[in-house]
UniProtKB/TrEMBL annotation:
Residues 17-156 form the Activator of Hsp90 ATPase homologue 1/2-like C-terminal domain. It holds the Pfam family AHSA1. This is SRPBCC family protein. Belongs to the AHA1 family. Transmembrane segments: none annotated. It comes from the Bacteria. The lineage of its organism: Bacteria, Bacillati, Actinomycetota, Actinomycetes, Micrococcales. Coiled coil: none annotated.
Length: 160
């Protein structure tokens, strides 16, 4: 289901002190992705992972404190179903993201485009989300995107 009529766009950018190929590798390696993608206060695990155009993955995100946040899916968890739209090796990952939830505010398909661009000795990473479900507040999304980008930065710089 697509977010018909939803023109909301959320975007975040971070400069990372690592080579673009190292950053891109963190987007396509399941262990790396599970390590850095979950925002602060959450951990993630894959139920399946098939990263190729036409492939998909399902990640279960668990809140560190399920009492404080019951989650979109329930039992202190958020589940994300991700369809891979496109991969441009070394440059870009385009995904369509769905949140299985009984709450209609989280219905619809959000498109997330992650781009990697060389800048000097480092990399500019930008994530652009379109058709963001109304149940995700702009403030919470900004915090979550910034947190994931900070985790990505820490992950790749610790390995380069």
């Amino acid at each position: 289901m697509t977010g018909a009529g939803n023109d909301r766009v959320d975007e975040a950018t971070r400069l990372v002190d690592a080579a673009p190929h190292d950053v891109y590798r963190a987007f396509v390696d399941p262990d790396a992705l599970a390590a850095w993608l979950p925002p602060e206060g959450m951990t993630g695990r894959f139920e399946h992972f098939d990263l190729r155009p036409g492939g998909s993955y399902r990640m279960v995100l668990a809140y560190d404190d399920p009492q404080a946040d019951p989650g979109k899916t329930g039992d202190g968890t958020d589940v994300v179903d991700v369809a891979i739209v496109d991969l441009v090796p070394g440059r870009c990952v385009v995904q369509q993201v769905d949140f299985p939830s009984d709450d209609p505010a989280f219905a619809g398909t959000m498109t997330m485009t992650w781009t990697v661009e060389p800048v000097g000795d480092g990399t500019r990473v930008t994530v652009r989300a379109t058709d963001v479900p109304s149940g995700i507040s702009p403030q919470d999304h900004a915090v979550g995107l910034a947190s994931s980008l900070a985790h990505l930065d820490a992950y790749v710089t610790s390995r380069s």
